[in-house]
């Protein structure tokens, strides 16, 4: 009897990720994205998915932080740095949180075309308050 080697394409792995995410099987979804990111380390969409999975859904800030840092460096969007500031504040890294908040504010001045759910001024004020009382 011959051995059949099964090969999963990146699309197969991504579909598995989506299935596990829907089922809230975050560990398995994470492993799928991890495999994809080994093959495509600078893919902004995969990094966004990893950030969403680890930070937003799974609440594993330490696990998601490296992907968020890489995403912020690749895209350099003010919203990425704002989220990075919040993550650092949550982890108790106040100096880093302030550094990323400053970078976010600088980028927002030249990226006014990038819209957020809330007005930037209010979002910055809320984050500053969060950092201050952390």
Give the gist of this structure:
The chain has 134 residues and is mostly helical. It is built from seven helices and no strands.
What is the straight-line distance between the termini?
A: 63 Å
Outline the low-pLDDT stretches. Answer: none
- Helix-strand sequence: HHHHHHH
Give the C-alpha Rg.
Answer: 17 Å
Give a structural overview.
- The chain has helices spanning 10-22, 26-39, 44-57, 61-75, 78-90, 94-110, 120-132.
- The model has no long low-confidence stretch (mean pLDDT 92).
- The chain is elongated and about 50 Å long.
- Helix content is 74%, strand content 0%.
- The protein has 134 residues and is mostly helical.
- The longest helix has 17 residues, at 94-110.
Task: Name its key features.
mainly alpha, 134 residues
Topology overview:
Layout: H1 10-22, H2 26-39, H3 44-57, H4 61-75, H5 78-90, H6 94-110, H7 120-132
């Amino acid at each position: 009897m011959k051995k059949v080697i099964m090969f999963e394409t990146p699309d197969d792995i991504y579909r598995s990720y989506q299935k596990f995410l829907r089922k809230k099987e975050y560990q398995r979804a994470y492993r799928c994205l991890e495999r994809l990111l080994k093959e495509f380390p600078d893919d902004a969409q995969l990094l966004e998915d990893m950030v969403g999975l680890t930070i937003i859904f799974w609440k594993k800030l330490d696990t998601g932080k490296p992907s968020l840092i890489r995403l912020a460096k690749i895209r350099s969007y003010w919203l990425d740095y704002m989220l990075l500031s919040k993550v650092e504040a949550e982890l108790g890294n106040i100096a880093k949180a302030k550094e990323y908040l400053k970078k976010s504010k600088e980028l927002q001045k030249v990226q006014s075309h990038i819209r957020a759910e809330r007005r930037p001024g209010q979002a910055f004020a809320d984050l500053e308050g969060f950092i201050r009382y952390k």
